[in-house]
Amino acid sequence: TFLKFEEEGYEKFDGGNFKVDPLKCFADDMTVIMEETTQNLKKMKEIFDWTGLEINEKKIKVIRIGDNLDSLEPITDEVKFEYVKAFTLLEVEIDNKAKNLKENFVAKKKKIRKKIAIWRKLNLNTIGNLIVAKTFLISQLGYLLSMMECPKEILDEIQGDIDSFILKNKTHWVSKDRTHIEPKKGGLGAINLEIYATSLRC
């Protein structure tokens, strides 16, 4: 079944031989930036009604940006959206003051360390650890680094953890500079996270 929009609303019309009412579906995750007015909030709910989708009002999060950041008081009780100071989008925690973004990298650092602890038990050689680092460790950071800058101290800690895992100890038997040089130039070919991060945001 399709929906036909007109100036004063919409009307349903038959889409072939499908003789049943439109299925009510739930909208997937969506992010909307708009001026906070009672009319706009009510209109958001109406839009889904027009399209045949349903929203769970209690699961809708409203986060203020700009002014009045500390208030969680709704401007209307005509919709039941929840006001919050932070929200999660694609596993990234974002607060309305953008002051705690680094916590996303702290969480990734802990996750990488857990993975290192698991892979270290296999006692792979240097090349094996290098492959693991490129495949399972560095990949934890790609999405985050493409959208925000990691504090240098955290990036340095993660770099040290990964390099030590590759070389199997904290005393590097390969010089630091040569660790990240490509193999055809006599290096190990490990990834320099600072260069990696810059390349993702070019």
Topology:
Elements: E1 2-6, E2 9-13, E3 25-26, H1 38-51, E4 53-54, E5 61-63, E6 82-84, E7 86-89, E8 92-95, H2 102-120, H3 126-137, H4 142-147, H5 152-167, H6 176-179, H7 193-200
Parallel strand pairs: 3-4, 5-6
Antiparallel strand pairs: 1-2, 7-8
Strand order of the largest sheet: 1-2
The radius of gyration is 25 Å
Count of beta strands: 8
- The ordered string of helix (H) and strand (E) elements is EEEHEEEEEHHHHHH
**Range of helix content:** 25-40%
Tell me what the structure shows.
The chain is of the alpha/beta class. It is 39% helix and 14% strand. It has helices spanning 38-51, 102-120, 126-137, 142-147, 152-167, 176-179, 193-200; strands at residues 2-6, 9-13, 25-26, 53-54, 61-63, 82-84, 86-89, 92-95. Helix 2 (102-120) packs antiparallel against helix 3 and helix 2 runs parallel beside helix 5 (152-167).
What attributes characterize this protein structure?
202 residues; single chain; alpha/beta; two-stranded parallel ribbon; two-stranded antiparallel sheet
